[in-house]
Design a protein that fits this description.
The complex is a heterodimer of chains A (327) and B (320). Chain A has 327 residues and is an alpha/beta fold. Chain A has a domain of 186 residues: P-loop containing nucleotide triphosphate hydrolases (Rossmann fold, 3-Layer(aba) Sandwich). Chain A contains 12 helices and 12 strands. In chain A, strands 6-7-8-3-9-10-12-11 form an 8-stranded mixed sheet, with helices on both faces. In chain A, strands 2-1-4-5 form a 4-stranded antiparallel sheet, with helices on one face. Chain A is globular and about 65 Å long. Chain B has 320 residues and is mostly helical. A two-stranded antiparallel ribbon of chain B has the order 1-2. In chain B, helix 4 packs antiparallel against helix 5 and helix 6 packs antiparallel against helix 7. Classes of the chains: A alpha/beta (327), B mainly alpha (320). At the A-B interface, helix 2, helix 4 and helix 7 of A face helix 9 and helix 10 of B.
C-alpha cells in the first residue's frame, strides 16, 4: 500500500442545529486516502456516510449544518477553514462528486451536452468546439451509444443508467484526482451497476484516481474497495483493508454486518440480522454508540466512548474489546 | 476563475443546440388551445395598432365642436333642437361620417384615433410596469429562497408589509403628491406589484434549491451567481412568463381606473380618459363610453386566455 496521503480527514464533526436538538450526524470521523486508492465508507442508512461525503466539500446546508471540529487536509489546504472561493476551485476540478440519484442530479431543462460543456467551462478555459469535443470523448469513454444524439438529449429522454453515466462523465470533465461516489449504483439495475462498477475500476487503474465509494452493499466493497471504513453513529468504528475486514472483522458491529451477507454454500433458510435500530443522532447512547445492540457488551461500554486504536498496522478498531480497558 | 472569460449571455442562455426544440414543443402544446391563440392574435393586433396605428389616424386631441357626438359609421342618432321662435322642437338626424368611422366624442375628437392612442398607452403601461414588477419579484424571490436565513426573513416580512398596503390608495396618493405622469404611474405600479411574484417565485425556488442538481452543480464548482442564473432562474422562467402574462390585465385596469377618476396623465389619451369623458354623455353618445369599454374588455380577456394557455403549455402534467 502506497502511503502518500492525498486526503486526510481528522476528527471531523458535522453537526446540524435543529429545533429538536443537535443532530450529530458526523461525530469524529478519521481516515486518510492515498493516491489511486479506493476507500469504501460502509454503514447502515443514517449512520452519517453521506454527510461525511458532503462535509468533504462543505456541501451541506449551512445553517443548520456546521463543521464544529476537525480538519480535512487536501494537498496541505484545510478544506474546513479555507475560503469559499478556494474551495470552489477545488470542487469539481480536484475533488468531484457523483450523486446517488442521477435523475434529480441533472438539471431537467438543459441538454446533457449543455450541462457537460457548462461544467467544462467552469474550470477550464476552452473554446466551444474544444469543450464539445471533450464532452464527446467523455461520453464515449462512458460507453454511451450514439454520443452525438445523447449530447442533444434532455435528462428525461435518457434511461437511468445513461443518466448515471452522463453524471459520471460530467464529474470527470476536469480530471479530478479524487472522486466521491455517493451510492452511485443504488438507483440503477444490476446490469447498469456492473457497467458503472467497471467504469470506476478503470478510472482507478487507468488514471490512478482515488475514489471514496459510499455504499451499504458489502458485495460492492469486495469488488472495488482497497480499504473499507465502517461507520456507525457518525464515527469510523473500524478501518482496514477490504480483505481483512471481510475475513477477520474485529468490531462486533462489523462482524454482524459480514455475517448478514448471504452465503450460497450454507443451508440456512434465514439470514442472520443485527437486532435493534441505528441510534438516534439527536440522542446518542452514552459510551459506545453500539452498546445497546452489541452482543459482547461490557460495563465499560455503557459509559466510556472507545478510542480508535490500531490492532495491526493497517487495521484500526474503536472497541473496548481491543483497547484493553475492558479487562 | 474562468467564469469571467465567458460572456454573460452565453452563460445564461446556452448556445449549444439551443432550446429551440423545447420552444417548438411548447408552441405545439399552445396551439392546441384555440382560445389562447385567439388571445395571442388579439394581443399581436393590439401591439401592431399601438405601434403603427398613430401614423395613420388623425390627431386624437384635435377638437372640432361642429362635429361633436357623431355616431359610428352606419349608425345615426336623433338630436332635438329647440327653436325659440316657434317654441318647438325640431328633430335632426345625425348620420355617422366616413371621416370618423367610430364616431366622435362630445368635443368632436375622433374616437378611432383616441382608441389607437389608448391602445398604445395601455400596452406601454401594462408591459413596462409588469416588466418592472416581475423582474423585482423574480430577483427578490430567488434571492430570498437561495440565501435563506435572516435575508429570507427580512425580505419576506418586507413583502408582507408591502402586501398590506391598499394598492390603489397608495397609487392615488403618490400620483396626487408627485403629479400625474405616465412615468410615475408605471413606476408606482411596478414598484408595488412585485409582491405576489416574489412569494410565488420564492416558494418555487425553495423547492428547487434542495434538488440534487443544485447540490451537484455546487459540488462541481459552480459559484452562487452561476447556480442562481444557470439553474434556478431557468427553472422558474416558465412560471415567470405565465405570471407576467396574467398580471398585465390587472396593470392595464389599474391605469384605466386612474385615468377614469381623473388621475391619469393629462397629456395622453388613454382608454380610462375616454371612458371618463363618455360617462357624461351616455344618453346622447353611448359609443364614447362603450368603445373603450369593449377594448378594455377584449384586451383583458385576451391576456387572460393567452396566460391560461401558456400555463397549460408549460405544465407537463396538464393534459391538453
Amino acid at each position: 500500500m502506497k502511503s502518500e496521503a492525498l486526503l486526510e480527514v481528522k476528527n471531523l464533526k458535522t453537526w446540524f442545529y435543529t429545533r429538536r436538538g443537535i443532530v450529530k450526524a458526523v461525530n469524529g470521523v478519521d481516515f486518510t486516502l492515498s493516491r489511486g486508492e479506493c476507500l469504501c465508507l460502509v454503514g447502515e442508512s443514517g449512520c452519517g456516510k453521506s454527510v461525511t461525503a458532503l462535509s468533504l466539500l462543505r456541501l451541506f446546508d449551512s445553517p443548520p449544518g456546521k463543521i464544529v471540529e476537525g480538519e480535512i487536509v487536501y494537498r496541505s489546504i484545510d478544506l474546513v477553514t479555507c475560503s469559499l472561493d478556494k474551495l470552489r476551485q477545488i470542487r469539481g476540478k480536484d475533488i468531484a462528486m457523483v450523486f446517488q440519484n442521477a435523475q434529480s442530479a441533472l438539471n431537467p431543462i438543459f441538454t446533457i451536452g449543455d450541462q457537460i460543456i457548462e461544467q467544462i467551462n467552469t474550470h477550464l478555459d476552452l473554446s466551444h468546439e474544444q469543450a464539445l469535443e471533450k464532452a464527446r470523448t467523455l461520453l464515449d469513454k462512458m460507453r454511451i451509444p450514439e454520443v452525438d444524439r445523447a449530447l442533444k438529449q434532455y435528462p428525461h429522454q435518457m434511461s437511468g443508467g445513461m443518466k448515471q453515466r452522463a453524471m459520471i462523465a460530467m464529474s470527470l470533465s476536469c480530471d479530478p484526482c479524487i472522486l466521491i461516489a455517493d451510492e452511485p449504483t443504488t438507483a440503477v439495475d444490476v446490469t447498469i451497476r456492473a457497467q458503472i462498477m467497471n467504469i470506476l475500476q478503470e478510472l482507478k487503474r487507468g488514471r490512478e484516481m482515488s475514489i471514496i465509494f459510499i455504499t451499504h452493499d458489502l458485495s460492492l466493497v469486495r469488488e472495488i474497495g482497497d480499504r473499507a471504513a465502517v461507520i456507525y453513529g457518525g464515527r469510523v468504528i473500524e478501518i482496514a483493508p477490504v480483505e481483512r475486514i471481510m475475513n477477520e472483522p474485529a468490531h462486533p458491529y462489523t462482524r454482524g454486518l459480514i455475517s448478514c451477507l448471504p452465503d450460497v454454500s450454507s443451508d440456512a433458510t434465514r439470514l442472520p440480522s443485527i437486532e435493534g435500530n441505528t441510534p438516534n443522532p439527536i440522542d446518542m447512547p452514552s459510551g459506545c454508540p453500539f452498546h445497546p445492540r452489541c452482543n459482547s457488551v461490557m460495563d465499560v461500554c455503557r459509559s466510556v466512548l472507545p478510542e480508535i486504536t490500531n490492532i495491526l498496522d493497517v487495521h484500526a478498531v474503536a472497541c473496548h474489546l481491543y483497547s484493553g480497558s475492558g479487562k | 476563475m474562468t467564469e469571467a472569460n465567458i460572456p454573460i449571455l452565453r452563460r445564461i442562455t446556452s448556445p449549444f443546440y439551443g432550446n429551440r426544440r423545447l420552444l417548438g414543443y411548447y408552441w405545439e402544446r399552445l396551439k392546441k388551445n384555440k382560445l389562447s391563440l385567439i388571445g395571442l392574435g388579439f394581443i399581436i393586433f393590439l401591439a401592431l395598432v399601438g405601434i403603427f396605428g398613430p401614423l395613420f389616424t388623425q390627431d386624437p386631441t384635435k377638437a372640432d365642436l361642429g362635429m361633436s357626438n357623431l355616431p359610428p359609421l352606419g349608425l345615426s342618432r336623433q338630436e332635438s333642437i329647440y327653436n325659440i321662435k316657434t317654441d318647438d322642437f325640431t328633430t335632426k338626424i345625425i348620420e355617422g361620417s366616413p371621416a370618423h368611422p367610430l364616431g366622435t366624442d362630445s368635443k368632436g375628437r375622433d374616437m378611432l384615433a383616441m382608441l389607437v392612442s389608448g391602445a398604445r398607452i395601455s400596452l406601454f403601461v401594462g408591459l413596462l410596469a409588469t416588466g418592472i414588477a416581475i423582474f423585482l419579484g423574480t430577483f427578490l424571490g430567488v434571492l430570498s429562497a437561495y440565501l435563506g436565513g435572516w435575508v429570507d426573513n427580512v425580505l419576506m416580512r418586507f413583502t408582507d408589509i408591502m402586501m398590506t398596503f391598499p394598492f390603489f390608495l397608495l397609487l392615488v396618493l403618490i400620483v396626487f403628491i408627485f403629479g400625474p405622469s405616465l412615468a410615475i404611474i408605471v413606476l408606482v405600479i411596478g414598484l408595488t406589484g412585485w409582491t405576489g411574484a416574489a412569494r410565488l417565485i420564492r416558494s418555487e425556488a425553495l423547492s428547487l434549491r434542495t434538488r440534487d442538481f443544485i447540490t451537484a452543480s455546487k459540488a462541481l464548482g459552480a459559484s452562487d451567481t452561476r447556480v442562481i442564473f444557470k439553474h434556478l432562474i431557468p427553472n422558474v422562467i416558465s412560471l415567470v412568463i405565465v405570471m407576467a402574462t396574467l398580471s398585465i390585465p390587472g396593470v392595464i385596469m389599474a391605469e384605466a381606473s386612474l385615468s377614469f377618476i381623473g388621475l391619469g396623465d393629462p397629456t395622453s389619451t388613454s382608454w380610462g380618459t375616454i371612458l371618463n369623458a363618455g360617462q357624461h354623455s351616455l344618453e346622447t353618445a353611448w359609443w364614447v363610453a362603450v368603445e373603450p369599454g369593449i377594448m378594455l374588455f377584449l384586451t383583458v380577456l385576451s391576456f387572460n386566455f393567452f396566460g391560461d394557455g401558456l400555463r397549460d403549455a408549460f405544465d407537463p402534467k396538464a393534459s391538453i
